[in-house]
Amino acid sequence: MIEVHNITKTYKSGADISFQALKGVSFTIEDGEFVAIMGPSGSGKSTLMHILGALDTPTTGKYLLDKKDVSKYSDDELADIRKEKIGFVFQSFNLLPRATVIRNVVLPLVYAGVGEEDRNNRAKDALFAAGLDESHFGHLSNQLSGGQIQRVAIARALVNNPTIILADEPTGNLDTKTGEIVLGTFQRLNEERGRTIVLITHESDVAEHAKRIIYIRDGLITEDRRTHVRRIIKK
Amino acid sequence: MTIFDILHETYSALTSNKVRSGLTILGIVIGISSVITMISIGQGAQTSINASIQSIGSNLILVMPGAQRGPGMNVSAGRGSAKSLTLSDAEAISLEVTDIKAVAPEVTGRYQVTAKGTNTNTQVIGTVSAYPSVRNVEVENGNFFTDQNVKNGDKVAIIGPTTRDDLFGVDADPIGQTIRIKKLDFKVIGVTKSKGGTGFGSSDDMVYVPISTAQRYFSGDAYVSTISIAGNDATVGTSIQQQVTDLLILRHKVTALTMDFNVMNQADIVATASSVTGIFTILLASVAGISLIVGGIGIMNMMLTTVTERTREIGLRKAIGAKQRDISIQFLVEAVMLTFFGGFVGVVLGWTASYLVTYFGLLQTTVSISSILLAFGVSAGIGIIFGYYPARRAAKMNPIEALRYE
Questions:
Q1: pTM of the full structure
Q2: Cβ contact A149:A93 at 8 Å
Q3: Domains, chain A, ranges and CATH?
């Protein structure tokens, strides 16, 4: 569960020049939700994602992840939180080009200190869950299509059973059709496996795939609502 | 992260750009192999020089005419330039100085030596029967002359193997043959064993005759050019040196400042030669060491490039839970792996080079275990020193900025 209480974030560039990216944001995301955080560029949604993903800490306010206040954690403590509770899916995929599909998915488990045998089984499960065929497991990322790459990245985000999966513009580098497939994968993971998913996007048709949309603009939440007409991708 | 995981990551990172890794390693290979080769050549030179000093005798003290010049010993000071030592000096030394095994005075000169139409110019040494035991000369064929030969002034000669080859042909038997020195016939009664002499003039190209004969027919006076003394063991050198000096000062009626002779201890010569070759080795090794540092800078350069290139990878690793330590260890191990592998190839190459130096007979070189361990230690150390800064830089990266890096 995610609880955000009146978070602000101020960036300082120089002695008296500062920029407030978040101006007091509060919301709660329960386990099993599928939330889209939507806003135009410069709205502060990336900053919010960095804080939710424990990549950064808020200037003021509280961020409770599974009832634990992580807003004052050090770099290494944040690394532990990311390792245990967060799975990232990036716009630009960020697979290691020289490693095989399975090795890419195993990587979070390597840092988590999971044993050799367990790793491969869990990585395979995650890849199946993300909808990737076993024949691709030994391939390098340059042998895969964009949609397949993003599903490997989703499997990597799933593999350590995180509290939330944070997807930052996951369809941004994909064509519409492939994007739909990837969004369908998120929906399935949410429906069938009860995964908590937070989708960051600036496109409203992408956001419409979620169950709930949080609109953010100029560092403030302008709207927080259930999806009117939810777009469901059939398998 | 287990060691196996780190090695797996390192292997895949280094093999993904083989040419660059190879070129970087080359710097270390050249550095390490030249250090190994230079040290082995230096030590080989030291061993060879010490061996040739040892081959002139063991526990040897040499008394030569001429004043001692300056502080310390000058190896060829005044040899033959003054006549001050006599046979009776040698006799006095053997009677009065303690802890000595044998005393051998000698008269040396270079003459033309002929035999049946062949001739050679060689060193002729007039000495006594104790000479072989003092100067480690062994007779391979025939005998050395006796005290009786010296007393009688017989015209007998023992020749070195090189002289034999020059006068009678390779491996001929010259025993009983006649050689002519200064128009006098000498009967060859022995051939010395080869010492394979280098350095200090080959002791294989010599003719030995009784000292009485040499003084009467060659030098024409009663002086000797060197008195060689063999001590009982390695510890008595300094004491003998002192006793001989005191005795000869008394006999020659001179003072310590006006000495007309010069007493040298073999141990001092060995020490001097060792310190010279030691400096020589350090000089060679430090020149090679500079190339090692250049190689290390190459490693640092490559690691910095790699870190920049892999900024996004670092960002990703941090996003999925890698701590600063995990990142810095990964890059440090990469650097150490490069230098260690370079060190290994360098040792093999250096070993081969010094083997070739030996093989082509330039110098008898030895590669010591200590220089190999030193090379490995230094190369791993270079990996750590020159890999530390890039690794630190990678570890300190901000994950957000690293993920955004284009």
A1: 0.75
A2: yes
A3: 2-226 (3.40.50.300)
